[in-house]
Amino acid sequence: MKKSVFLGALTVVGLAAGVAAAGTLDDVKARGKLNCGVATGVPGFATPDANGVWQGFDVAVCRAVAAAVLNDQMAVEFVPTTGKTRFTALASGEIDMLARNTTWTFSRDVDLKFDFVGVNYYDGQGFMVPKSLGVGSAKELDGATVCIQTGTTTELNLADFFRINNMSYEPVPIETNAEAQQQYLAGACDVYTTDASGLAATRATFEDPSAHVVLPEIISKEPLGPLVRHGDSEWGDVVRWSLNALIAAEEYGVTSANIDEMAKGTTNPEINRLLGTEGTLGEMLGLPADWALKAIKANGNYGEVFEKTIGTNTPIGLARGLNAQWTNGGLLYSPPFR
């Protein structure tokens, strides 16, 4: 569910340089559609429903951007990508943004020439095993076979963890979450490792989730978020502040239920600037004054999106944890709208 590290860095950089001169915001407006890269299918985060309509936590970011730019959250072409294809798709211009649980790392930011516009989920790599294996800690996995997505930071983190703990393992290479699930359930590997959120999403699809255990160790930092190409700061600002609008809306109590009333004006200048009733923030972005209002109305604020896609009352069952607002002990924080 993650992250190719160097998949042909020179090729990716060359592709990015070729499309950087183009104005993505103007392209999206002229096309009337946002091309958004997502995972090939991760329950709760990005997957088509029974009607073929993409739903999920990451999907909601794409829809917020489409609503802000095109006044239509459904004006999105979702492009499924794997760990190996996602960066080439972005660098080549096939997609306008990538919202695919991708970890923000130095090399991706600097060497592959991408701009991460923020973090929409703070995560870490974990391990899942069958309960029948009788394992209670990742440090008991010496000699295990491990399903691992190739070309990812997951792969590198795994190698580091086993090396540090003087253990050995046998990798079982896979490319997609669906393939990992199939191989793991078939017994081709003892362990599946990826982001803890991905493990929760995968486990929720099992016929008997209780027969599988996510081990307590988290072995890495995985700040996941949307990204765009270097060289197009105007477009980066649009995606960045669309995400920030969802985060800020939750902090200020702006919800899908009260947003229309709040848009009439409040006593809080920050809310008024966010919703476009004061100031010229939309003009600065090249968008209408109510761009953020449209982004928030698409699927609600950050908290609303979280709860209906991956929260504790969904099959995924994730608690807010680090992804709580900073006012509630989490890391979630938007810069000021001023």
What can you see in these coordinates?
The protein has 338 residues and is an alpha/beta fold. Helices cover 37% and strands 17% of the residues. Strands 10-9-11-8-12 form a five-stranded mixed beta sheet. Strands 4-1-5 form a three-stranded parallel beta sheet. A two-stranded antiparallel ribbon has the order 2-3. α1 (9-19) runs parallel beside α4, α3 (57-70) crosses α9 (233-251) and α9 (233-251) crosses α13 (291-299).
Number of helices: 14
Q: Percentage of helical residues?
A: 25-40%
Mean pLDDT: 92
Q: Spell out the helices and strands N to C.
A: HHEEEHEHEHEEEEHEHEHEEEHHHHHH
Beta-strand content: 15-25%
Largest sheet: 5 strands, mixed
Principal-axes geometry comes out as: globular
Q: Using DSSP, what is the number of strands?
A: 14
Which structural class matches the secondary elements?
alpha/beta
Oligomer designation:
single chain
Taking all Cα atoms into account, the compactness measure Rg is 20 Å
CA-CA gap between termini: 36 Å
| Main sheet strand line-up | 10-9-11-8-12
Low-confidence parts: 1-11, 16-21
Task: Outline the fold blueprint.
Layout: H1 9-19, H2 24-31, E1 34-39, E2 47-48, E3 54-55, H3 57-70, E4 76-81, H4 86-92, E5 97-98, H5 106-110, E6 114-116, E7 121-123, E8 125-130, E9 144-149, H6 153-164, E10 169-174, H7 177-185, E11 191-195, H8 196-203, E12 212-214, E13 222-224, E14 227-229, H9 233-251, H10 259-262, H11 269-275, H12 281-285, H13 291-299, H14 302-309
Parallel strand pairs: 1-4, 1-5, 9-10, 9-11
Antiparallel strand pairs: 2-3, 6-14, 7-13, 8-11, 8-12
